[in-house]
Amino acid sequence: MAGYVKANKFVVAEGEEGELYIFIEAQKDVPDSPRIVYDGRDHAVFIRSPEEKIVLDYIHPEVRDKLRKAAGVIMVETILENIKDSYVAEMQIVDNIPVDWKKIGLKSWEDAMLK
Known about the structure:
The protein has 115 residues and is an alpha/beta fold. It has helices spanning 61-69, 101-104, 109-113, and strands at 4-6, 10-14, 20-25, 35-38, 44-49, 52-56, 72-79, 82-93. A hairpin with a 2-residue loop joins strand 5 (44-49) and strand 6.
């Protein structure tokens, strides 16, 4: 599964008008055609650029439907408590993300919460 890294941590938040924000740690390079590939299940893949694929693991069940229905989300990259950059990432909804999550060390959200 070369080319995929897990987000150390991320937060999904909803704005007053229903817009979705995903806060992640700031990355080094500038994003290039960012998009999120999501199948409505436990994990999503944030394709920040063709070379940079970040796994957003364990999407909370209460957020999944909102994320699946969104046309895009506002990505907010932070350094500690400061915002470094923000931009819109298009949502790409698929039937199934073609990644073997076990090879990356991931299980289902429910299994992870049992730890």
